[in-house]
Design brief:
292 residues, alpha/beta, Rossmann fold, N-(1-d-carboxylethyl)-l-norvaline Dehydrogenase, domain 2, 15 helices, binds nicotinamide-adenine-dinucleotide
């Protein structure tokens, strides 16, 4: 049986780890707040009291943490993943972090005989629960093949996109598209409401045409109800748009719409709405339109 050490059992990590346990993997989970590991234990996994304990006997380590400093700390700490995992283990970081940090960690892991992949995901909490995530993987082809049995359980579309860090670059592009689309769907909803149109009917027909997209399919109903329970928190999207704008600048690429949306997301976070789902951008559109 393959043992998986799973670090970070939040909105995404817990259902991913539970799906691995349900698929027959021996999953040992650790989260900074202990209750989460106990929840994994209730769902077929085992709870560990430290990173070292979770990864010591693992053939595969998966991390699903908020941001670059968290991943760097968990990997590089004295009693962290790199110091505690056995040589040859696969280390799959599914968090969304900076591509340069993924490259740095892949090189540092290789020095310790570990096979490190960046494998950020898209598909949201529901995709994690259903095991249908899209996973963009950076690393060597051989390591990606070795990781497939694990990735196949948590995802449906798994694509090797290039060497270390490439997965994060693709994920940054993903976040640009998602944020921009949410903003446009929010603007369309406020616009339709201002005209007194039946918005449910409008969303239904829009979803069937060229304007159709996953945000209309999965988020519009919550937006119409003003239900902004996360899901994906605006503060995490703020982090991702920081990654995207920095990476665009580094490449000398101009992203005018992306930058505008990044500023709107930054405004939501600055005024204390960072804990809302990213579809909460609609609130700002309403307020800017004097309709709140
Ligand atoms: P989350 O905040 O719900 O989960 C992160 C978990 O990591 C928390 O439970 C936290 O306690 C734990 N943690 C933080 N530091 C830790 C440490 N040092 N040791 C152990 N545990 C620690 O976040 P999430 O929504 O699950 O997102 C995780 C990552 O996945 C982020 O990078 C995010 O951008 C990305 N992501 C999220 C979604 C989504 O829809 N929520 C979708 C795709 C990608």
């Amino acid at each position: 049986m393959t043992t998986v050490g799973f670090i970070g059992l939040g909105i995404m990590g817990l259902p991913m780890a539970a799906n691995l346990a349900a698929a027959g993997f021996d999953v040992v989970g650790y989260n900074r707040s202990k209750g989460k590991a106990d929840q994994l234990a209730e769902r077929g996994g085992r709870a560990a009291g430290s990173v070292a304990e979770a990864v010591r006997d693992a053939d595969v380590v998966v991390t699903m943490l908020p941001d670059s400093p968290d991943v760097r700390a968990v990997m590089l700490a004295e009693d962290g993943v790199f110091a505690s995992a056995k040589a040859g283990a696969l280390v799959i970081d599914a968090s969304t972090i900076r591509p340069d940090v993924s490259r740095e960690l892949a090189a540092a892991g290789a020095e310790r005989g570990l096979r490190v992949l960046d494998a950020p995901v898209s598909g949201g909490e529901q995709g994690a629960i259903d095991g249908t995530l899209s996973i963009m993987v950076g690393g060597s082809a051989e390591d990606v093949e070795a990781a497939r049995p694990v990735l196949d359980v948590v995802g449906r579309t798994i694509v090797h996109v290039g060497p270390a860090g490439a997965g994060q670059t693709v994920k940054a592009a993903n976040q640009l598209i998602v944020a921009g689309t949410i903003e446009l769907v929010a603007e369309a909803i406020v616009f339709l409401e201002a005209h007194g149109v039946d918005t449910e009917a409008a969303v239904q027909v829009l979803a069937g045409g060229l304007a159709g997209n996953a945000i209309l399919d999965r988020k519009a109903a919550g937006m119409l109800d003003r239900n902004f329970t996360p899901g994906f928190r605006l503060e995490l999207h703020h982090k991702d748009l920081g990654i995207a704008t920095a990476a665009a600048r580094e490449a000398g690429v101009v992203i005018p719409l992306g930058s505008a949306v990044a500023q709107l997301v930054a405004a939501m976070v600055a005024r204390g709405d960072g804990g809302l789902d990213h579809s909460g951008l609609l609130k700002l559109v309403e307020e800017l339109s004097g309709r709140a």
